[in-house]
Write a structure and sequence with these properties.
The structure holds two protein chains of two kinds.
Chain A (H helix, E strand, L loop, with lengths): L1 E3 L2 E4 L3 H12 L4 E4 L15 E2 L8 H19 L11 E5 L2 H16 L5 E4 L3 H4 L9 E5 L3 E2 L2 H14 L3 E3 L6 E4 L5 E5 L4 E3 L3 E3 L5 H7 L7 E12 L7 E4 L1 H7 L6 E8 L4 E8 L10 H14 L8 E11 L6 E4 L6 E5 L5 H16 L24
Parallel strand pairs in A: 1-12, 2-3, 2-13, 3-9, 5-15, 13-20
Antiparallel strand pairs in A: 4-8, 5-7, 6-7, 10-11, 11-12, 14-17, 14-18, 15-16, 16-17, 19-20
Helix pairs in contact in A: 1-5, 1-9, 2-9
Chain B lengths: L4 H4 L8 E5 L2 E5 L5 H7 L6 E2 L6 E2 L12 E4 L2 E5 L10 E3 L1 E2 L9
Parallel strand pairs in B: 1-7, 3-8
Antiparallel strand pairs in B: 1-2, 3-4, 5-6, 5-7
The chains are: A alpha/beta, B mainly beta.
Organism (chain A): Streptomyces chumphonensis
Protein name (chain A): FAD-binding oxidoreductase
GO molecular function (chain A): oxidoreductase activity
Chain lengths: 386, 104
């Protein structure tokens, strides 16, 4: 069975869903293929962070600011709820050194269009009554927000389907079909052949494999992270609260285990406790070392959590690219191949901007944000084994 | 003689202890779970749900369903079907998550 569409999106996570949504609304015929189903990978293992606070001025912040506005629109437009909460973020500094660094980082972000508010130590408890004493200060970022990622991706896919997109769950891509002249011609799954002049690689941490199937390379690697889930509580954590040390962890290149506290309440009651980062391939085993460190980090920031039970933990794989920027847009090495992957831990937040920019690129329009920093061919080609 | 479970298995329990439930003193046999002691006293519901404040008590009785959560000596979210009653325990009906004290 052969079907022809304008674009095939590989991956039904949040990024694939956003690509399908904006492409379908731009009038393109879309097929979404996923080896499992919607939100079966990284999206289903995230916290739903829509952050501008953790980004330095530059292309990723531009994309985050674009996406922040788009999420606000989507929350109003999508017919069913996605638990969008414009709760704001609070980055806390443990000591005077961190406080000085945090303030100067915030000043640079403010110059780039981010709303920032300095919160001196004596005002911290007005913002977050349960914060530990002795912190040096914090910066409040009112633009930080949250969605429930599984709901958000499902609603986006549903809306894309309403605009004519077709979803093929449970179908791994076994072949990316390329014409003799090297152009994309479609994909094959065990159940069908789909023809299209455009394929979008939105396979998250598995995107390197799709690039390989298309005859090229993209060095996306999995970076494992855990989240602890507490028993339901009243609102003891009001914002997305994280330690300034988190910023250093996110930008580190180390494969070893890093943890730094990222704490937030949810509308359902449980508090979510992150974060950990380590590069261990696709190892799904539970790391008690990571969980113990995260729990200690969290209780240092919010001592009240020491008396609270953790009900469960979950984990997933962030799609990591070596320069911490996603790959977005056409791949000049394989005409017709597009990438929308490598967002690491920021994929939920950056998804709508990514989807919008990709839809613009697919229609040959000028993208709203310059795609040059996100070029998928910016990495050195690995030399073939000797 | 009433055919209660203790009689059926010919158990010879130690003397009853007592627990405080919502201000009244209830007897409990040593080793009996709090849920069993409450049932024996005719109390079938001791928690209300977070949404809708619907009544809850023992459902599975084997520690799996978490329906029977109760506050024991000030600690919320204890499974009444698993926690043994101890002499002098103060057992409090639980509203919702039982953590209202943390709301500030």
């Amino acid at each position: 069975m052969k079907q022809t569409v304008d674009v095939i999106v590989i991956g039904a996570g949040i990024v694939g869903a956003a690509c399908a949504y904006y492409a379908a609304r731009a009038g393109l015929t879309v097929a979404v293929v996923d080896r499992a189903g919607p939100v079966a990978g990284t999206t289903g293992a995230g916290e739903g962070n829509l952050l501008v606070s953790d980004k330095s001025p530059g292309p990723e912040l531009d994309l985050a600011l674009l996406s922040t506005g788009l999420w606000r629109d989507l929350a109003a437009q999508l017919p069913q709820g996605i638990e969008y909460e414009a709760k704001g973020g609070v980055v806390v500094a443990a000591d005077e050194t961190q406080w000085a660094a945090l303030r100067s980082a915030a000043a640079r972000q403010a110059a780039a269009g981010v709303t920032t508010r300095e919160v001196p130590a004596q005002r911290l408890r007005d913002l977050e009554p349960h914060l530990a004493p002795g912190l040096a200060g914090a910066v409040h970022y009112p633009q930080d927000a949250q969605v429930q990622p599984a709901l958000a991706a499902s609603r986006l896919l549903h809306a894309a389907i309403g605009s004519g997109a077709v979803l093929h769950p449970g179908e791994p891509v076994t072949q990316v079909v390329v014409t003799p002249r090297g152009r994309i011609d479609g994909v094959r799954t065990p159940r069908r052949e789909l023809r299209s002049p455009a394929v979008v690689n939105a396979a998250g941490p598995w995107s390197a494999r799709i690039a390989e199937l298309a005859g090229t390379t993209l060095p996306v690697m999995p970076r494992r992270g855990f989240v602890l889930v507490t028993e339901p509580l009243p609102r003891v954590v009001r914002h997305k609260v994280y330690a300034a040390a988190y910023l250093a962890d996110v930008t580190s290149d180390s494969a070893a285990l890093h943890t730094s506290p990222v704490i937030e309440g949810t509308p359902a009651g449980p508090v979510l406790i992150g974060s950990s980062r380590e590069r261990t391939g696709f190892d799904r085993s539970l790391s008690t070392a990571a969980l113990r460190r995260m729990a200690l980090d969290a209780t240092a920031l919010f001592p009240v959590l020491a008396e609270v039970s953790v009900l469960r933990a979950y984990h997933g794989f962030r799609p990591y690219l070596p320069d911490h920027l996603p790959a977005i847009g056409p791949d000049p090495r394989v005409p017709g191949l597009h990438h929308a992957c490598g967002h690491e831990g920021a994929g939920i937040g950056l998804a709508p901007g990514t989807g919008l920019l990709l839809a613009q690129a697919l229609r040959g329009e000028e993208p709203a944000v310059d795609l040059a920093p996100f070029r998928p061919d910016r990495f050195p080609t690995p030399s073939p084994p000797a | 003689m009433p055919r209660d479970p203790a009689g059926l298995v010919r158990s010879r329990p130690q003397p009853a202890i007592s627990i405080d439930y919502a201000g009244s003193t209830l007897p409990a046999l040593p080793g009996q779970s709090i849920a069993a002691a409450l049932w024996a006293a005719g109390v079938l519901s001791w928690r209300t749900t977070r949404d809708g404040r619907r009544p809850r008590g023992a459902f599975c009785g084997i520690g799996v369903c978490f329906d029977c959560l109760i506050t024991v000596n000030g600690r919320p979210n204890q499974r009444a079907c698993l926690v043994p009653a101890r002499d002098g325990d103060t057992v409090t009906p639980q509203e919702g998550h039982g953590r209202a004290d943390l709301a500030r």
